[in-house]
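Page 47, continued from p. 46.
Same chain as before, 285 aa.
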Amino acid sequence: MLDVPAQAACRDRLRLHKGQNGGLYFHHYDGKDWPFHCHDEFEFNLVLRGMARYETARLTYELSPGALIWLHPEQPHRLVRQSRDFRMWVVVIRPRALRSCLAGGDALARRRLLASDPPEHACRLIGAAALAELDHLLRLLARQHSQPAAFNPGLGFALHAAWQAWSTASGPAGAAGLHPAVAEASRIISAQPALALGGIDRRVGLSRSRLSRLFSAQLGETLLAFRERQRLEGCRRRLDDGATALAAALEAGFGSYAQFHRAFTRAHGQGPRRWLADRPAGHWH
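Result:
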């Protein structure tokens, strides 16, 4: 079971072209850390340059050139601590298309990539030659990004090429598991963001100061900041479902509308009413 529930992560509604089996994006350093998020699509990433850290529900991966990582539908993940030269390909595939691409092929690929509870170690370092070949293939595929008739077969080919590179890599890339108390605290807060922090340290068996230090070191934010972000995500979901701002704030655990408004404006640079009016129908990370 995942330690960070998918329903507690920010859900991305990816903007995919109609008729296409997925999408292809070139990500470069933009000075921002991603929040924990998930989406309906399968994803794999290929790191070309630089360094970064990927955090999933259970593990932390230190990324470097040649890192190839699988991310399954509904799996919470976030990218943090990117170096200024960080560059990677992000490939997403609709679940139905993924099953179709893997039908009748490598049985191990089907078991691994279609697993409902995927293995923890999902990242491997591929060799320089394989990295160059896969990068070249994805660059060619990017030219067909808005042409489903050409893009869809190429996406399937890219998936198989990525699997071949990953499955023949020498071994898994280094991954560090989160401290059990940090993982448990993040799970509790994600599931119950209205909970007072005083009860969390007792439940995970560490003092508040020890837990706070570990939490900041491993997740890059304080317990308070993490809880506030989870509360805001709960508010956004309730606002999307039609709740009033006051009701959304109180249900998520804020003590007052004023407290919620300050936190929301701090996170988004605008108040909730303006955000509701301006937000796009879908967004990418």
